[in-house]
Design goal:
four-stranded antiparallel beta sheet, Rossmann fold, eight-stranded mixed beta sheet, about 325 residues, globular
């Protein structure tokens, strides 16, 4: 196993609201190893993007630790964190709103290089042109503006900008969710090529299990701010154990016409993340739920090798229960 690059320990992010605290991320722990891609999945509002932004300190944390190369970066002073951000970058979901419409593509990519002074001034233009080629964008677009590019090329520019300072870790926040399927495949292949060539490590955030399966080594499933299941990608699709994961996978289309998968339609309302009560947060929608599920919060336990599940009845599959 490669060395650990990032260790997230009991990470919490709460937001103050008039009626109390919204638990966007609640006591989340996981590791990211150097050179791998960890997929973070779950429905909208489960806290995926908040985790990515908190790890990079784009928003302040409420509690916990983010250990990067052996040090808790959440305690870094701002000046030290500003230097560290060269090594930790983010690819944003919307390839249009994250690019300055008043600047050319060349200026957008060059901006972090100029600010951090990582390349001599007389070599910046050529460095940016090389990055464009590496990201699959024609050099002819150097003086173009974001509105002149289609969605796929804009997202490539967003990826190239994230590479400008030669980082080791990148948070990919749903980078293909707004793109056509054919363009999605091109962007995913580009990310994998860049990872192989540059030794990058990804936290890949998405709500699309098919996309995450294609690119991830390990997958973490979230529900209402908590990790409910975590294991290797192939194991999750072969043997999902948490009821929420099983329900999610039942909604993934099957390409082969002779295969049939039972569709699980979840019933009940999603509980409020504001001042959550003790117990399993999925209990009100779960077909396995019993009294204990509404009274005691289950622990994230290792059910089988490197397969962690937060459920009182994880070993009982739907067809058995």
């Amino acid at each position: 196993m490669n060395e650990k690059l990032i260790e997230v320990r009991n990470l919490k992010k709460y937001f103050k609201v008039p009626s109390g605290e919204l638990h966007a991320v609640d006591n989340v722990s996981f590791d990211i190893y150097k050179g791998e891609t960890v997929g973070l999945v779950g429905e909208s509002g489960c806290g995926k993007s908040t985790i990515g932004r908190t790890i990079l300190r784009l928003i302040p944390h409420t509690g916990g630790e983010v250990i990067y190369k052996g040090e808790n970066i959440l305690n870094y002073p701002e000046e030290k964190m500003r230097i560290l951000r060269r090594e930790m970058q983010m690819i944003f979901q919307d390839p249009y709103s994250c690019l300055d419409p008043r600047k050319t593509i060349g200026q957008i990519i060059a901006e972090p290089i100029v600010i951090n002074k990582t390349v001599p001034k007389n070599k910046i233009n050529e460095y940016v042109l090389d990055l464009l080629s590496k990201g699959g964008v024609s050099r002819k677009l150097y003086n173009s503006y974001p509105h002149e590019l289609d969605g796929g090329r804009r997202q490539r520019v967003g990826i190239i900008r994230a590479l400008a300072l030669n980082p080791s870790f990148i948070v990919c926040d749903e980078p293909v969710s707004s793109l056509d399927v054919s363009i999605q495949a091109q962007i995913l292949n580009l990310l994998q090529e860049l990872q192989r060539d540059m030794g990058l490590t990804y936290l890949f955030i998405s709500h699309d299990l098919s996309v995450v399966k294609h690119i991830s080594n390990r997958i973490i499933v979230m529900y209402l701010g908590e990790v409910v299941e975590s294991c290797k990608s192939n194991l999750l699709f072969k043997n999902p154990l948490h009821p929420y994961t099983i329900a999610l996978l039942s909604a993934v289309p099957v390409a082969k016409y002779d295969q049939h998968r039972e569709r699980i339609i979840l019933k009940g309302d999603v509980p409020s993340p504001i001042n959550p009560k003790p117990g399993c947060r999925f209990a009100s929608r779960c077909w396995k739920a019993q009294d204990i599920c509404f009274e005691e919060t289950p622990e994230l336990k290792e059910i089988e090798t490197d397969h962690y599940v937060q459920c009182h009845f994880a070993s009982i599959r739907k067809e058995d229960g």
